Amino acid sequence: MKTPLIRVLLIEDKTADADLIQEGLKGQSAQFYEVATVADLTTAIEHLKTSLPDIILTNLNLPDSTGIATVLALRTAAPHLPIVVMAGEDHVEGVGLEVIRAGAQDYFLKNQQDSGYLSRTLRYALERQKIAHQQLESINHYQLVSEVASDYRFSAKVDESGKVTQNLPTGAIEKITGYSAEEFLKTGGWRAHLHPDDLWINDRNQEQLYQDHSIDSEIRMLRKDGSVAWVQVFVSQSGVKNPIV
Asked: CA-CA-CA-CA torsion for 4, 114, 131, 106, nearest 10 degrees?
């Protein structure tokens, strides 16, 4: 069974190369591709105003744009779309890193790829862009909550081994602990700032959480200045496979 359609905007001024890419993608047995081809940057930008693809595959040097300027113009025209860049015989050593820094998801030489390689590159670029978008949404969410919350809030994923991965804390974290959110995470996060005599409370809470119980308890935290702060702890699962604190 084939996966959902991937719509590709191909920007390639060399007809033979464009035909080869289209034929290669059409021949993929594990993925459907719909390819719209244009020959220059100006036409590509006009195309993006009326038809939004899933990914952009572009030659680095085009009749009306060359080098990093091509990537920057596409990034401006379609800031949320992944861009994969190709280079031909006019490839300049070291430009690949500049292309990635300019906002492209990947970069490769035409003579080093086949249709299978190209298909994987496009799918991986889409996945990386998806992950980056989710991370940005998460950061924006926590920043929004931080603006309106008077409490210290955070979420964390607990894997099957018990390892806790904490997301960016929000709200009155600095008022309660004396640490900024970034400092709090860099210095060990939640458990590292608990009073040593209360670690057993945290362990008990985590065990109860594994058993699908919500938590309501008090625990002591060590503030940045060495003083102790009592905090009320409310913990519940998010309803997904791994608990979210």
From this structure: -140
Helix (H) or strand (E) holding 148: helix 115-148
SS3 149: coil
Return the CATH superfamily for domain 3-139. Response regulator (3.40.50.2300)
- d(CA 95, CA 60) in angstroms, rounded, equals 10
Q: What is the pLDDT of residues 31-86, one digit of tens each?
A: 789 999 999 999 999 999 999 999 999 999 999 999 899 999 999 999 889 999 99
DSSP string, 98-110: HHHHTT-SEEEEG
What CATH class is the domain 149-235?
A: alpha beta
Q: Is the dihedral of CA 40, 43, 46, 50 positive or negative?
A: negative
Q: Residue ranges per domain, the chain?
A: 3-139, 149-235
pTM reported for the whole predicted model? 0.56
